Amino acid sequence: MPMSRPTTLGELVSSGWQSVPIAEEIRRNAVARIRAGEPLVPSVLGYENTVLPQLENALLAGHDVIFLGERGQAKTRMIRSLTDLLDEWMPIVAGSEINDDPLHPISAMAKAAIAELGDETPIDWVHQSDRYGEKLATPDTSIADLIGEVDPIKVAEGRYLADELTLHYGLVPRTNRGIFAINELPDLSERIQVGLLNVLEERDVQIRGYKVRLPLDVMLFASANPEDYTNRGRIITPLKDRFGSQIRTHYPLDVETEMTIVQQEAVLPPSEVVPTIIPEFMLEVVSELSQQARQSNQINQRSGVSVRLSVSNYEAVTANAVRRSLLSGEEVAVPRVSDLDAIAATTAGKIEVESFEDGGEGRVIDALVRSSVHTVFMDSIDPVLLGPIVSSFEEGISVDVGADVSLADYAALLDQVPALQPAVDALLEDDEIDVEQPAVVASAIELILEGLHLSKRLNKNVHGGSTQYLGRS
Q1: Whole-number Cα distances in Å, 155 to 275, 298, 306, 307
Q2: Average predicted confidence (pLDDT) for the chain
Q3: Does residue 243 sit in the same domain as residue 265?
Q4: Do residues 292 and 162 share a domain?
């Protein structure tokens, strides 16, 4: 914080600083971003033409907002990112627990300090990151947590129960002049939701039987899953009515957006372990799997298929490639189709399969993997290039691939089946990676052969850690 900031009330007034309501402060900074063509939430992708215009409208209108959407749709991230729309520093009465505005104090402590010290009242400065409060709604959340309660220690120190200074403020008052978020709002019991009515409409809080009225200045945001209205709980009608805007979120609408999000969010093993090269078609396979899972009637769509599924699968496939490289001594780790077996562990916990049969979950995951590989294969390679490959296999050639096959053996396949080379080149032509790496070529070969098998043009036999492809005749 710059040392030139005013440190007393008198200096603050002399500086010309003026206080504005939180909604006006956010509106002013949002206007500056919109006018400059900058996104309000730069870290959230895929909402540019759907969710973010609605959010911009809500902020310009000064509304409290509830985000409605399935799990993994960046609802909390959007709310947390809104702190960037606050002024970087905000003055408060020094020692205030509820960020009292020096020009418009609301607590007994701040009023008494200003009455006693006047222009010499000390001022502290709060950074924008400290003006955000958040609570995960759970059934055991109490009014004391959100609004406040009598502090028995302060009573024991000799204060009267009727003294406002005996109060311990809850999370909402402590976020005065800031943003407060409640995640999974329907999980909050109905009697506690009632306690938020005044916060949203009258903009004050009432604590027990005290004659205390704190006219808070808070913008309230909440998140909820649509199914939570009927399954785990509900948002009471008066509370829903007090939110100015309800914004529906969604999953990425196309594979390209999902791929970009995965690259942004995934945390991969560092290059010090093993340098990693990830072909774009493997990233596309992982992202396509999630897209298809969201359309599958074998998966509970009310639960949703989070983008976290794509991120975790991407990390698992890459980790399996790294492990294989460590075991085999390969200098570079490149994920292949054979590494997709690793996603069973990361997928099983993130989807709810509509099947009561033993092993049904495994069959659904396997079907998704096959379907996503086939889709990427068909979209990436011109069918004209595939005929000569199939003809080579029909002449009696068989090919082994998998973790037990060395990179030298993969390279030899291009000499054994020359028709593979044009298809490999076509698959890698738009990829910004080192296409001369033997491990990259091996990955491309596996996708082509598996794609031909899934297209019913090659047969496949699995033997332990290796897979054999051969002609259908």
Answers
A1: 62, 60, 49, 50
A2: 89
A3: no
A4: no
Same domain, 224 and 277: no
pLDDT band at 329 (very low <50, low <70, confident <90, very high): confident
Nearest to 410 by CA among 432, 441, 434, 380: 441
The single residue listed with the structure tokens 């020009």 is: 103
What is the C-alpha separation between 213 and 93, in angstroms, rounded? 19
Domain boundary among 201, 225, 248: 248
For residues 230 and 301, state if they share a domain: no
Tokens in use for 301?
């769509």
What six digits make up the tokens of 271?
A: 């290059």
Q: Which two tokens stand for residue 161?
A: 């129960």
DSSP E strands in 96-185: the ranges are 123-127, 132-136, 148-150, 167-169, 178-183
d(CA 255, CA 267): 20
Final residue before a domain boundary, out of 193, 227, 248: 248
Q: What is the pLDDT of residues 157-216, one digit of tens each?
A: 766 656 667 778 889 999 999 999 999 998 888 888 888 888 888 777 776 656 667 889
Alpha carbon distance 337, 373 (integer Å): 8
CB 277 within 8 A of CB 333: yes
Write phi, then psi, for 177 (nearest 5 degrees).
Answer: 65, 35
pTM of the complete model: 0.87
Q: In the chain, how many domains are there?
A: 2
Task: Reply yes or no on whether the pLDDT at 296 is more than 60.
Answer: yes
Residue 260 CA, distance from chain mean position? 13
Q: Which domain holds residue 289?
A: 255-471
Beta bridge partners of 360: none
CATH of the domain at 236: 3.40.50.300
* Span 401-429, average pLDDT: 89
* 338 CB-near residues (< 8 Å, 6+ apart): 401, 402, 403, 446, 467
The crossing angle, in degrees rounded to 10, of helices 22-36 and 51-61 is 140
Are 282 and 240 in the same domain? no
The model's confidence at residue 20, banded by pLDDT at 50, 70 and 90, is very high
Mean pLDDT of 386-405: 89
